Amino acid sequence: MLCLPMAQASVSVKDDAGNTVTLAKPAQRIISLAPHVTELLYAAGAGNRLVGAVEYSDYPEAAKSLPRVGSYNAVDLERIIALKPDLVVVWQSGTLKGSVQKLRQMGVPVFASEPQTLEDIAQNLRRLGQLAGTDKTASAAAERFLTGLNRLRARYGHSEPVSVFYQVWQQPLMTIGGRHMISQVIELCGGRNIFAGLSALAPRVSLESVLAKNPQVIVGGGVTENNPQWKEYWQQWPQIRAVKNSHVYSVNPDLLQRQTPRILLGAEVLCEQLEQVRNKKAK
Description:
Mean pLDDT: 92
Oligomer: single chain
Low-confidence stretches: 1-6
CATH topology of the largest domain: Rossmann fold
Helix content: 25-40%
Strand order of the largest sheet: 4-3-7-8
CATH architecture of the largest domain: 3-Layer(aba) Sandwich
Structural class: alpha/beta
């Protein structure tokens, strides 16, 4: 009796832009056009399907050896086509729209990733796992993420609020608005983003506005972690509660500024920092 291999069924999912992405069979050659996408694909069990990625795709370690296809905002279309992908995963708000349009015109299936909430990270894992045929691994990763998220929410959700200024950049001074995922992490830890009322994701703010809001905590992200002078800058303003009480902290930006499961590691660091503030206040 002749045993024929089972045909791999087609797969169809919606991406974060609302587009339906359909593949005749699970993708075997995937290209990532954003560092957070690369991490998500590895977490979803599709790392061995990756044949190319953009610069700064540096986690996990294996990602560093992937062929490079440009940067997230300057992709090399010729290089991408030469790698013969059956799926390209792009960053909805970061990858140039013109590049995405050209890929689609050339018949390359494109999935747009743009997690906007913490729960969206789990959804991205599941959908990428479907496209790569690694559903079981991806679903397990999604469940682990949600379990960790709920654990932090249960631990810190009813904590005394702590006002936080999150600094993305120093010159010009930039922060995060209420729609930013980092603002959600601050809330997860029982914190209150002092600029949560701003609609822009990463708005510029004035020094005067920070002084007026007088945050209990200042957290440095972006390049500030590797630049100790940013903390020295704030010492000029001892009237700010965060400076007066030595509550000026930093968190590894890779753990907070990428929409991946590692954001929970950054959240744990931030939550502990805010808890230190509460404990100090209680004494």
